[in-house]
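pinning this so it doesn't scroll away 📌
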Amino acid sequence: MKLLVLLAAGAAAFVYGRAWLEDHPQHNPWAPLDLDNPRGWATAMKIGALRSDPAACNAVLERSDITYTMLEPAGDGACRRENRLVLPESPLTPANPEMTCTVAVSLSQWLAKDVGPLAEEMLGSAVSRVEQLGTYNCRRVGGGDDGRWSQHATSNAIDISAFVLGDGTRVSVLNDWGDGEDRGRFLRAVRDSACLNFGIVLSPEYNAAHADHFHLDQSRGPPAGLCR
């Protein structure tokens, strides 16, 4: 009798858990990723899985109604880019830098779920433009002749230098990172939130080479393995 009660309780818990996951796809590891859903327990894992599945990654952009344009493969050797695209409706300036799909997914989520709300909450204005210093650069880390290749070599990274608000305020990493007031707190908050979306996040706290920008890349799945 006791065994039957335990089996019935287990079955009921399974049915309840399955129904709960269906109602909360952001926590369901088997539900397709949709950036319109809130961030959940399974979101980082799902983004990480996209790095090895370009078709599934493109499907996330389509499912989330994010406009993108695929580009033809380009480059050779370590700088070959098979999977590259642009986001023509993003607030990035200069516009349309090429990037991998996984960078596009994480960037879209970060801007919509973190950067935008934090700007309104902490600075009282929406973000109208996000200044970027580039994505693709066929080079090694540090720019030398040897060593490992940079994630920029395959457009799997983006450098963000400033945020321009709807009221005209410009918040730059170079000028405002050390600000002890709202601008500096905003920059630290968006840096910290980037670590939920990208595999590597580097800021001025990392080294002098990043004094004027945030480096965000997808060399590994989020949350960030290195967040400084």
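📌 and the second one:
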Amino acid sequence: MSETNELAAAASSRDPAVGLRAVRALRELADRLEDLQVANARGQGWSWQDIAVCLGVSRQAVHKKYARRGFPTDQDGG
């Protein structure tokens, strides 16, 4: 948990180099977590629409981003 606290503190640093590196690290972490949870949802039978609602994006956007990454798809794209 201290690593998380350090990252949060770095993100609010007055030094732009420190702050921007922290922002990049947070973005990469968020991307990995999203990948993990999309895989989890698809594995449990969630539709692209269900996932899109939770992520606050369109079904088409989430399908375009993940369908080519080897996540399970359905025939009607739903």
